[in-house]
Each structure stands twice: as structure tokens, then as C-alpha cells.
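Milestone M4 deliverable, item 7.
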Amino acid sequence: MGLPRVAGTQFTGMYPEPEAKDTTRAVAVTENAGGFLWVWDSWERMRSQEPAGVPGDGSKTLLVIAHPDDEAMFFAPTLLGLARLRHRLSLLCFSAGNYYNQGEMRKKELLQSCDVLGIPRSSIMIIDNRDFPDDPGVQWDTERVAGTLLQHVEANGINLVVTFDAGGVSGHRNHVALYAAVRTLHSEGKLPKGCSVLTLQSVNVLCKYISLLDLPFSLLHTRDVLFVLTSKEVAQAKRAMSCHRSQLLWFHRLYLLFSRYMRINSLHFL
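Output delivered:
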């Protein structure tokens, strides 16, 4: 005795005929689309609100990086997100990126990138001395970094410092040294009253290279602040990264396409 017809489809054994397969595919596509729209709606709702704990309109924010290109390669979503909040952005770079004797070129590239990202040239300081060499094999002295950073924060009335977390995104020693310095200042209570610190969350390799597909995980995972770029802002971030022509090797071009850090930044307060 054959199987009964259900909703106009004849089943043979356990396998549906093409009409049922098409229906199954349609349901799956609808469910996936619905899930993506839920994520997108959640993101839009979050973007319409000022992140809790982040200083408001007119706040002076300092991005602290180790090398020219860090600002575009890792922090573009944060910079553009804070620009939406009308923060007054400034940048402190602890080296000229002279590992391959390209320091002068890389300084110029950094200035061009900051033009794209909205950081005034008058608010950019690049440190170029032997205390902080661009070298993954050299451990920068935490006290020296902390002292230089504190002096800059106090002199410029900074309300918010943004830098790497303990993982340094890529694990680069120079990145980690910046976190160690700001952590020391924070834990010892040396930062000026009212000055907050945000650190950029390091993620595993899989999450790092799945671009916008990491958004659902970023929404679910614990974080204090989340910045997600629009398509227009992603193009702006890519233009900033493209200013670093000396660094655009083939793997950096792949990075532009696939890295979550070109689209998403999740950060934590110290």
C-alpha cells in the first residue's frame, strides 16, 4: 500500500519528490533570511543608541597604536563609530614603522589614512626614537611607554583612551606593550579623573577572518561596546587602509576582504 498524498506531493519511501525539495529549500532560505534580518535589526537598534559608558558629544578620544596602519587595519570601526558620536579624535603612534627602513614613507601614509578617517593632522603624534623600535622581537619598557602615554593624556585633556587588549589582536609584542602600559596606569590610579580606557577585543583566527558573518557571535558574546560599519563606512575604512601602499602585499589585500576588524570592533572597558 502506497504512502498517502500530503499537500499535493507524492512521497516515495523517505525522500520527497522535487516539488517538496524546492519547498524545503524555500523554507531554509526564508529562515536564514529571517535570522539575518533579526541580526541586522538588532544592529540597527544598537547603532541608534549611544554605547553605555562611552563619553558623549565633544569628548576627547585618544587612539594609541604601535605602528602606522594599526589605525586602519584594526581600529577603523571604532574611529568611525566615535566620529558618529562627535568625538574629537586624536592619535598617538609609538613608532614610525621602520622595521624595513620605510619609516619616512610610513609616516606620510599614516597622515593620509588619518585624513580619510577624520583625524586632524594637528592631533597626530608619531614617536620616532630608539626607545620604541618597530620590532616584534623587542619588548618595550612598560614604564617608559606608560610615562609617555600619561604625559600625552594629561597635556591634551583626554577623556577616553582606546588601544589593544592583552592579546594585541595579532599577538605582536609592540601591541601588547601598549596594553601593559595603559593597564599599569589604570590599575595604579594614575590616569586623570574621568579618563576611561577601552581595549579592542582579540578574537580567534576563525572569527577574525569571517568578516560580517561574525556579527551574530559578536552580538551574543560579552562586550561593553560594539561598533559595526555600514557598507559606505567599510568603503571608507578600505580607502584608509589603501593609503598604506608600502604595506599592501597580497595577504593584506585578502585581509581587506575577509577580516572582521575592517567591519566590526568589540571593546571592553578596563
